[in-house]
Amino acid sequence: MILETATTKSLVENALAQIAPPQNIVVIDETKEAPNFQVDIEKMSRGFVNIVKNAFDAMPDGGKLIIKSEEVGGFVVFSFKDSGNGMTPEMLGNLWTPLFTTKAKGMGFGLAICKRVVEAHTGKVSAESSIKKGTTIKVEFLLT
Question: Would you kindly state where each structural domain of the chain is located, as residue ranges?
Fold first, then answer.
């Protein structure tokens, strides 16, 4: 890993620059400029792209993706909240498993890779979901 200093906003902007949202989806970036933290920008941006792509796929009829960042007790916490279809508890339980996919053309590696990258940064990733209400993915990093 090549660790560089990034802000929460710059990391999300880097990821969003790599993927265009569908016309029927609005992306709201509420990330903050601070804090600065050490991260492999290229790898973590790829992980964030995977989260965003999954959010887009969960909203085939359109919707909204809200991305936020906050500093909580020595951690920086990112949240990606979509207004999509949501997931069943079974789907949620398999979310980070390689080769698990609900998509016709999916390979099932995107979120598994994201989890591996986050954990390599000594972070953690979690998900909450409600059917027809959407999903929130949270990514946490320890500030050093």
Answer: 4-142
The pLDDT tens digits of the residues spanning 91-125 come to 877 777 765 566 656 666 677 778 888 888 888 99
Tell me if residue 138 falls in helix, strand or coil: strand
What fold, for 4-142? Heat Shock Protein 90 (3.30.565)
Q: What is the DSSP string of 62-108?
A: -EEEEEEEEEETTEEEEEEEE-S----HHHHHHTTSTT---STT--S
pTM over 0.70: yes
CA distance 111 to 136: 13
| 130 strand-pairing partners | 134
Whether residue 19 contacts residue 89, with contact meaning beta carbons closer than 8 Å, is answered with no
Tokens describing residue 73: 């007790």
Residues 34 and 71: beta-carbon distance below 8 Å: yes
